[in-house]
User: Fold this.
Amino acid sequence: MTTPPPQDPFPGPEPGTGYGQAPPPGYGAPAGYGQLAGYGAPAGYGQPTGWGGPGAGGPPPETEGKAIAALVLAISSFVILPFVGAVIALFLAPAARRDIVASEGRLGGEGLVTAAKVIAWINIGMCVLAALLALLGVLALWRASSAP
Assistant:
C-alpha cells in the first residue's frame, strides 16, 4: 500500500499561468503607433555617458607640499617654537595658494592652506595674550616688592 504525496499547503498558480507568460491578446501598443518623430537619442550621438566634469575619470589632484608644510608648522607651533612656527606658516600659506591656483586643478590643498592660516592666527593671538599676562604679572610683582 502506498501513501499519496503530501499536499502543498501554499499552492502556486496553475502551470502555464505564472510570471513570464505573454500577456493575453488585446494588450500592448495600439495599432498604427510606432516611435514618435523627435523622440529618442539624436542620430550620431550614441548613448549618454554620465557627467564628465574636470578631472573625470582621472586620478585625484595631488596635495601641494607647501600647504601640508604650512599646516604642520601651524599645528606644531603650539608645542614646538610657539609664535615662530605660526609666522612661518603664515608666510608659506600664500605661496601655497598661488601654486594651487596656478596649477589649474592639478594640485589641491586649499582647505589645508585655510586651516593653516586660521590655526596660525589663533596661535599668534594666544602668544600675544600670554605675553601680556606675563607682563602684567611681572609688573604686579615689581609693585608688590617696591611697596613700603
Helices lie at 65-76, 84-102, 110-146. DSSP finds three helices and two strands in the chain. The mean pLDDT is 80.
